[in-house]
Amino acid sequence: MNNVKVYIIDDHKLFIEGLYSLLADKEGLRVIGHRLSPLEALQSIHQINADVFLIDINMPEMSGFELAQKILEKKPGARMLALTMYDDYQYIEKMIKSGVMGYSLKSDTIKELVKAIKTVAAGKRYMSERLKEDVIDKIGSINTLDETEDIKKSKLTNREKEILLLITKEYSNKAIAEKLFISERTVETHRKNICSKTNANTSLGFLKYGIVEGIIKM
Hints:
It is a single chain. By secondary structure, this protein is an alpha/beta fold. The chain has 2 domains: about 5-145, Response regulator (Rossmann fold); about 160-210, Winged helix-like DNA-binding domain superfamily/Winged helix DNA-binding domain (Arc Repressor Mutant, subunit A). It contains 10 helices and 6 strands, in the order E-H-E-H-E-H-E-H-E-H-E-H-H-H-H-H. It has helices at about 15-25, 40-45, 65-75, 90-100, 110-120, 130-140, 160-170, 175-180, 185-200, 205-210; strands at about 5-10, 30-35, 50-55, 80-85, 100-105, 125. It has a 6-stranded parallel beta sheet with strand order 2-1-3-4-5-6, with helices on both faces. Strand 5, helix 5 (about 110-120) and strand 6 (about 125) form a beta-alpha-beta unit. Helix 3 runs parallel beside helix 4, helix 7 (about 160-170) crosses helix 10 (about 205-210) and helix 8 packs across helix 9 (about 185-200). The N and C termini lie far apart (about 65 Å).
């Protein structure tokens, strides 16, 4: 089997050097190059014969969302894996909609990253194990992610309504997690989504939203 050719686009030089070192001895993978500048990467995109592009989200010249779209415009069929520190659902949804096939966290293990790269190279979607619980709870399946509406325009899910009610009753994240049999990290993610959808970030704000929307009966 031929090595999967990987190309990195990230503005952090030390991080890229670290990836070169970590991936150097991984069977079936070969890093063929990198760019610190997304604009420079786009200028030479037709000459980059990569199986998988690893791209960051937050870069000074251009966001990962815009970069992914432009790569696909210039190189239809390009397979991209977002490799980032952001674990918020809004970033995941936006990157998938921009055309990436996978989403990995920079805090993942090298073993997980290798799996992610090979999965995307094979033409399949990939989601970091740390994020799967949140994504599946939110949309049911990673395969339907690109069909969902913008999170800020969508209404609360049944799970988010449950959590909103508990927040207004002054439950802590830990107490909510125990009551609903989910992790505290999942509760935190739901709280972020609720804040985005309701434009509120306090118990009082959630209470007002719940009353207006008929979620909470007075």
